[in-house]
Amino acid sequence: MTVNANVTNHAQTTMSGAQMVIACMERLGVETVFGYPGGAILPIYDALHGSSIDHVLTRHEQGAIHAAEGYARATGRTGTVFATSGPGATNLVTGIADAFMDSTPLVIITGQVATPLLGRDGFQEADVVGITMPITKHNYQVRETADLPRVLCEAYHLASTGRPGPVLVDIPKDVSSQVAPFVFPEAVEIPGYHPPTLPDALQLQRVCAAITEAQRPLLYIGGGIVSAGASEELRAFARQTGIPVVSTLMGLGAFPPDDPLFLGMLGMHGTYAANLAVQQCDLLIACGVRFDDRVTGKLELFSPHSKKVHIEIDPAEIEKNVRVDYPVIADAKQALQALRSMSPPCTCASWLAQVQAWGQEHPLTYSQDESSLKPQYVIDLLNEMTGSEAIVTTEVGQHQMWAAHFYRAKRPRTFLTSGGLGTMGFGFPAAIGAQLAVPEATVVCIAGDASFQMNIQELQTVAERNIPVKVMVINNRFLGMVRQWQKMFYENRLSESRIGAPDFVRVAEAYKVKGLRATTPDEARQVIVEALAHPGPVVVDFLVEEEENLFPMVPPGKGNHEILLRGWEE
Q1: With a threshold of 0.85, does the pTM exceed it?
Q2: Residue 291 annotated as catalytic
């Protein structure tokens, strides 16, 4: 818990619960909150008026929570969300689940009906504590006004320490309105909550011995590297040992894409080299990952020849999906620092040559001609024109995977996407949060035409505040991933996958946002230049080839070695 000294003086001994909420947030250094007001949370909005905190009014609660996720993911700081009771709170549920799956630190403050009405099905009452219990790191319903400072300090501490995640604080309206003594805790002590950080020295010695013995070691890294701020330690350890690296979707940016050790993303839409390396390695060093199904494919066939190291801060993830030989429960940054200091020797030059040869044999590729516009080409152009230096968010679908393939993020916290939950509607509001968190950055949302429509109302948010987010709509007039699966696995029965789309340029202009369109490769280059040069928000509609399919692909139920490099029909 950090305390910000440069805040409003709160020397008075009593204040309302709502005033306590704002006072605590100021002391904890909260600068930005995303939200949408309503009756049960009005006391808190009244106390917010005139405070030092910048409130961002989104046009839907789901927009607010995804924006807070983008803010948190781009900075590592905890995002904060306000919403009212009932439908306001339930509109947050998808975003809470998304943050929980992707370990994003959030504090969600919801208004609630007054305590005498709890359980009576009053107007706009919903049991948000019960609803969100499975998808929060912890949640509270505060019944006593005097408890608010302690609870809020605990909430921010829980959200940001150990394995990060969302924490919800539900505040009945009478609790936020009543007056009580304000006592700000000097420290946070939560019985039973002591997240591990330092690795066990004896276990690390065993890991080092395994590295020394290995002929074909491989580093498998994920979003935990980014959360722990361990990218530099990862890079130093990999270069010191010469061990090649594969990444999950959530780990992209944690290791330089142009480093000779990097083989790309593994899993269902991973590279040929990454997937074969996982299958052929004899030591798999997993760090900050959870062995999810999109990575492993059929579990019985996953990395069958390897001993496995799992470095993970959350003990619940150890052997949840895959048996491991060397569990290391620790902060990834601390564990990699310690491993590097132990300097385990590694003789894997011939192995590195082999995996690099696989990458050269089957690189990621596409074919662009003059007659149509390929989605891969659009993203390739964006990568070229931003020098891989933008913060990129994505929606979910084919375009998300093409972005993972062809936008080569150089640094952590610059590729923000919904991994575990796969939430359509995440990318645009997340870009808003990222842009407000890092105002000097170029922030681009790569969106599908279907996903963009999930939270298209946030065009009003960017227009009103002139938030210079650039939305690149990969418009194929389909639910592209659904259409591809229907083609491959359902005998091309295209049941309700043609989504259609409005005229995005005219929609943008209706919100007083600049709209552009491209239908050819030359036009694509021109509009990206124009969009990046524009000082405000822009929506660019790229009319791409309708039935372009996404490859490589490991079909469901198959092992990673059964990767398809081209179309099923080919």
Answers
A1: yes
A2: no
